Amino acid sequence: MIPRALKRLLHRATLKDPAYRFLFAPGPPGETVAFDCETTGLDWRRDDICSIAAVRIKGDRILTSERFEAVARPRAEMRAEAIKVHLLRESDVEIGAPIETVIPRFLTFVGGRPLVGYYLEFDVGMVNKYLRGLLGIELPNPMIEVSKLYYERKYGDAPPGSVIDLSFRAILNDLDLPALDQHDAFNDALMTGMMYLKLRDLKERGVRIARLRDVEEPQTTLA
């Protein structure tokens, strides 16, 4: 596997359109972008993005007025399982914009800012699927995975055999955050941004998340 730093250099050299060099420049200090995609299914090779949303984070504030939202018209058929999750029907996405016009707008919104996400690898992989054809590159932005931050705060010192729950709902509950309607791209991006800020604060203060004892400690018997 090519190291990310080297891949970034290669992509900068092979960028098809120099107008997008801004992606390789550092974003504004202290700013990140939380984002989320809804898709026609869970196979990035066959499925397509049907909606994408992002919101900027500056310091310890989520700037809901600085948001990006778009419904895209997918080429792939909407799978029944996906419709049950995000409730976007064929008739909803038929009026969406072609993904080739959505991705450039998304890139302009994000710039060089680090990307924050929940299981970010999948969403980034879906964007890269189109980006390779449009610009010959993959997203060069730094990535911040909230499930990893959560794992470190709660399970980083867990004993062997501990039950680990990295679900979206578990993270919201442990961080005492409001549960918005899930599987809406903007709501998911917003909740992910809230998770990031709270987890970052816990890390900065050296605070761990309380964990139920799920492995019995050995009993000590006095002779």
Structure commentary:
The chain is an alpha/beta fold. The protein has a domain at 4-144 and 181-189: 2-Layer Sandwich (Nucleotidyltransferase, domain 5), CATH 3.30.420. It is built from 8 helices and 6 strands, in the order αβββααβαβαβααα. The protein has helices spanning 4-14, 80-86, 90-93, 99-110, 120-135, 146-155, 168-174, 185-204, and strands at residues 31-39, 49-58, 61-73, 97-98, 115-117, 143-145. Strands 4-3-2-1-5-6 form a 6-stranded mixed beta sheet, with helices on both faces. α6 crosses α8. The N and C termini lie far apart (56 Å). The model is unreliable at 214-223 (pLDDT under 50).
Q: Give the oligomeric state.
A: single chain
Q: CATH class of the domain at 4-144 and 181-189, please?
A: Alpha Beta
**Helix/strand class:** alpha/beta
Number of helices: 8
Helix content: 25-40%
Major sheet size, sense and barrel closure: 6 strands, mixed
Q: CATH homologous superfamily of the domain at 4-144 and 181-189 - what is it?
A: Ribonuclease H-like superfamily/Ribonuclease H
Mean pLDDT: 87
Query: How big a fraction of the residues is strand?
Result: 15-25%
Taking all Cα atoms into account, the compactness measure Rg is: 20 Å
Do you know the CATH architecture of the domain at 4-144 and 181-189? 2-Layer Sandwich
Strand order within the widest sheet? 4-3-2-1-5-6
> Separation of termini?
56 Å
Work out the number of β strands: 6
Q: Which descriptor suits the 3D outline?
A: globular
Helix and strand pattern: HEEEHHEHEHEHHH
Q: Identify low-pLDDT runs.
A: 214-223
The CATH topology assignment of the domain at 4-144 and 181-189 is: Nucleotidyltransferase, domain 5
